[in-house]
C-alpha cells in the first residue's frame, strides 16, 4: 500500500503494523478510558435505546450545546439548522471544499495538516499558502483570494490565533467579500483557543464557516462527530454538499458526546491536560539528553514537534530508521504542503498515548538520532 | 433548508420533522432491537475494551469475514488489503468517484438512488444512463464508456442482476477494458443477490470495484461500515482517495458488525425478512383497497414502490399532501436521474419500520390518494 505517501498513509501504516509497533503518529486519543469515561461507555446500550425513542433533533441539539459550551463557544448557532453533524471533521472539510466554486483561489495556513490542503486541491481549488508569520503580522491576503482557511490551534505547531488577530482577519474578510474558514479540530485541548470564536466572527459581520471536532478529545475509537457551522451570510451550497455525503450522524454517538462533554467540564479536561503535559515533559527530557529541543515549547495540543539541527540527520532518515525499529512518528515535510523542504527539520510525535508508550517512543527516537549523528560523524572523520 | 431537493434532503426533512411525523423515507432500518440484537448491543462496552487491546487489523479482518460470508461473498478479497472499511457506503462511493479520472464517461443504472449519480457527477464524470431493460437484455455499453455502475439489487426497484447477466457484463467489460462497479448496499436483504459476485467477476478476468454496506440490515443508528473492495487489476488511485477521506473506521463498529453478522446467520436473517414481508403485505392490502398496486411485487428489499395510474394524481402531489399530514414517503422522480418525468408515477415507502408505523403510513397514503382522485373527479364533473 505504498503507492502514495501522505501523512494519513503513514498513520495507516502505523495502525496496521502487523508486528505491533509503537504508534505515535496520529492525533487521535489512543488511551485507556478514565474511570469516569468507562462509566459513560457502560451506558451506551441505554443510549441506543434512547436513540430509538427520542427525536433526533433533540439529541443533536443537546450534543451541540454540551460540546460547544464545554469549549467556550457560546455564540455558536445551536438550534438554527446551521450546524451539520458529520461523521468526522475530514468529511466536514470535504463538504466545504465541494461547496466552494471550483477554480476559486483560497489561502490556507502553512504549514498545516496536509489533508486539509489535499481536500481543497482535489475539489479543484487553487491554494496559496499563508504563513504563520503572516497570520501573526495580520498580513491578510487580498484578491483574488476568496476564502482564508485557518487551523486554530494549528496542527502541528499548536499556534493559537489570538482573539485580536481573528477580529482583524474577520474585519478584513468582511471588507473584501471573503469567507473566513476556521478548522478548530484541536480547540478542545487548548484553553487559549476557547474564546468565543463565533462572537468575534459575527461582530465583524464576516461570512464564516467553522469546523469543530470531538475526535481529538476522547479515546472513543472513531466514534466522533465533526461539526460544520456556518453564518447566515454564507451563500455556498453547503446543504447540497452535506446531503450528498450523509443523511445524519449517529444519535448514539451524539448521546456519547453529550455525556463526555459533561465529564469534560467536571474534571475530565484537567485529567486529559495533566496526562498530555506529563507526556510532553518526558519527550522533552528524552530528547534534551541528545541535544534536541521541542520546536513549539508552549504548544498545548496533544502532539509535539521536535526540531532537528540543520547539520545532522534529517527527519526522513530518522523516520525510516525508527520504522525499521517498529516506532512510528511523522516526518513533517508533508505538513509544509506548499514547500516540503521547509519542513524537513521537524518530526512530530503524538502525546495522547499511554505514558509508557510515549516514554519508550521518545527514548527510541533520541537513541536513533544519536546513532545517526554518530554514523555521520564517523563518515566525516 | 429547502434550497435543494434531492432524495436525501427529503429524508432529512422526515428525520427532523419537529411535529414527530411518520418517517417512511430512507432505507435505513429504524426498528426496535430484537432480543438477540439487544443482547449484542449490551456488549458494546466490552467491545470498547477489546478495541483498545486487540490489533485493528485482526478486528477488521474478522468483521469482513463475518459480514461477507453471511451474505455469500466467499471470494471477497479478505485479508489482502483490498477492502477498505469506510464510515458509510456513500463515502465508499465518493472515494470511487474521486479515483476515476475526471471527464471520463461512465454508464450508471437507471433508475437508481439519485445520490449515486450525484456523487459521480460532482466529481466531474460524464454519466450515461443504462436502463434496467438494457441490463436484462445484456445490452452493454461500449466506448467511450470506461466504467459501468450497477446497483445490485437495485434501489428502488429491487431488481437483482442475475448471475449469468453479471458474467456477461464482466466478460464484456474485460474485453473492452472497462471497470465493473457494483453497489451491493441492499444485498444483505436479498438471498437471490447473494451468489458469489467476486467469483463471477474474477472468473471473467474483469477489473472490478464492489461496495458493500452493513447499514441497511440492522437498526444500529448509523453505526455501520461501507466496504470498498477492488480487484488486483484496478489501477485507479483508490488508496489515495481513501487516505484523503479517513484514517480508519471504528473498531467498535467493526466488532458490532461481527456480532450482528453472527446473529444474522443464526436466525436474524429470517426474523428480519419476516418483518419486512409482513410490512410489504399490509402496504399491498392498504393500497389495493383504493385500486393501487405494488410496482415491484417480487422485490425483496426493505422499500416498496407503489405505481400510480397515468390518469390520476401524480407522486409529487401525493407527496405534498402526505407531508402536510405529517407522513413522509419519497416521490420517485429523482431516482430517474436522467429523465425525472419517467419516475413521476411512482412513490416509495420504507418497510424497515415498526409494523404499526408502516400500517398507519400505508393507510394514510391510500386515503390521500383516494381524496386527491375524488377532487380530480369532482373538477372534471
Would you give an account of this structure?
Two copies of one chain form a homodimer. Chain A is built from 13 helices and 13 strands. Chain A is α/β, with parallel strands linked by helices. Chain A folds into two domains: 7-34 and 266-375, Aspartate Aminotransferase, domain 1; 50-262, Aspartate Aminotransferase, domain 2 (3-Layer(aba) Sandwich), CATH 3.40.640. In chain A, strands 2-8-7-6-5-3-4 form a seven-stranded mixed beta sheet, sandwiched between helices. In chain A, helix 8 (163-176) links the parallel strand 5 and strand 6 (179-183). In chain A, helix 4 (56-70) packs parallel to helix 11 (251-288) and helix 11 packs across helix 13 (355-380). The longest helix of chain A has 38 residues, at 251-288. Chain A is globular. The relative contact order of chain A is 0.16.
What is shown here, in short?
The first copy, chain A, has 381 residues and is α/β, with parallel strands linked by helices. Helices cover 44% and strands 15% of the residues of chain A. Chain A folds into two domains: 7-34 and 266-375, Aspartate Aminotransferase, domain 1, CATH 3.90.1150.10; 50-262, Type I PLP-dependent aspartate aminotransferase-like (Major domain) (Aspartate Aminotransferase, domain 2, 3-Layer(aba) Sandwich).
CATH structural class of the largest domain in chain A: Alpha Beta
Query: What's the number of domains of chain A?
Result: 2
Q: Determine the most extensive contact between two protein chains.
A: A-B, 59 and 59 residues
Give a count of the beta strands of chain A, DSSP E runs of length 2 or more.
13
Cross-sheet strand order for the largest sheet of chain A: 2-8-7-6-5-3-4
- List SSEs of chain A in N-to-C order: HEHHHEHEHEHEHEHEEHHEEHEEEH
User: What is the oligomer described by this structure?
Assistant: homodimer
- The structure class of chain A reads alpha/beta
- In terms of DSSP E residues, the strand content of chain A is 15-25%
Helical coverage of chain A, percent range: 40-55%
Characterize the main sheet of chain A.
7 strands, mixed
Q: What would you give as the CATH superfamily of the largest domain in chain A?
A: Type I PLP-dependent aspartate aminotransferase-like (Major domain)
Integer-rounded radius of gyration of chain A: 21 Å
From the spread of the alpha carbons, the general shape of chain A counts as globular
Q: Overall mean pLDDT score of chain A?
A: 95
- The unreliable regions of chain A are none
Amino acid at each position: 500500500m505504498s503507492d502514495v505517501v501522505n501523512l494519513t498513509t503513514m498513520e495507516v501504516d502505523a495502525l496496521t503494523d502487523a508486528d505491533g509497533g509503537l504508534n505515535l503518529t496520529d492525533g487521535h486519543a489512543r488511551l485507556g478510558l478514565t474511570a469516569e469515561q468507562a462509566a459513560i461507555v457502560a451506558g451506551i446500550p441505554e443510549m441506543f435505546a434512547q436513540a430509538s425513542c427520542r427525536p433526533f433533533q433533540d439529541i443533536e441539539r443537546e450534543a451541540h450545546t454540551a460540546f460547544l459550551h464545554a469549549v467556550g463557544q457560546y455564540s455558536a448557532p445551536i438550534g438554527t439548522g446551521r450546524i451539520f453533524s458529520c461523521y468526522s471533521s475530514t468529511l466536514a472539510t470535504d463538504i466545504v471544499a465541494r461547496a466552494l466554486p471550483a477554480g476559486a483561489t483560497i489561502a490556507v495556513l502553512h504549514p498545516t495538516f496536509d489533508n486539509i490542503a489535499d481536500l481543497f486541491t482535489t475539489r479543484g481549488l487553487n491554494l496559496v499558502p499563508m504563513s504563520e508569520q503572516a497570520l501573526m503580522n495580520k498580513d491578510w491576503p487580498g484578491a483574488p483570494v476568496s476564502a482564508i482557511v485557518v487551523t486554530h490551534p494549528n496542527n502541528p505547531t499548536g499556534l493559537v490565533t489570538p482573539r485580536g488577530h481573528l477580529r482583524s482577519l474577520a474585519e478584513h474578510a468582511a471588507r473584501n467579500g471573503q469567507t473566513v474558514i476556521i478548522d478548530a479540530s484541536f480547540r478542545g485541548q487548548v484553553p487559549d483557543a476557547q474564546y468565543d470564536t463565533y462572537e468575534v466572527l459575527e461582530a465583524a459581520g464576516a461570512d464564516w464557516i467553522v469546523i469543530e471536532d470531538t475526535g481529538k478529545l476522547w479515546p472513543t475509537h472513531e466514534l466522533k462527530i465533526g461539526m460544520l457551522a456556518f453564518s447566515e451570510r454564507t451563500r455556498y451550497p453547503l446543504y447540497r454538499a452535506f446531503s450528498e455525503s450523509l443523511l445524519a450522524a449517529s444519535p448514539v454517538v451524539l448521546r456519547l458526546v453529550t455525556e463526555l462533554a459533561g465529564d469534560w467540564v467536571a474534571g475530565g479536561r484537567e485529567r486529559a491536560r495533566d496526562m498530555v503535559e506529563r507526556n510532553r515533559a518526558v519527550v522533552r527530557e528524552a530528547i534534551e539528553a541528545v541535544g534536541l529541543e521541542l520546536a513549539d515549547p508552549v504548544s498545548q495540543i496533544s502532539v509535539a514537534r521536535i526540531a532537528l539541527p540543520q547539520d545532522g540527520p534529517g527527519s526522513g532518515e530518522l523516520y525510516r530508521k525508527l520504522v525499521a525499529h517498529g516506532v512510528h512518528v511523522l516526518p513533517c515535510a508533508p505538513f509544509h504542503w506548499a514547500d516540503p523542504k521547509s519542513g524537513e527539520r521537524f518530526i512530530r510525535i503524538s502525546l495522547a498515548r499511554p505514558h509508557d508508550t510515549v516514554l519508550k517512543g521518545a527514548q527510541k527516537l533520541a537513541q536513533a538520532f544519536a546513532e545517526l549523528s554518530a554514523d555521520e560523524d564517523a563518515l566525516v572523520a
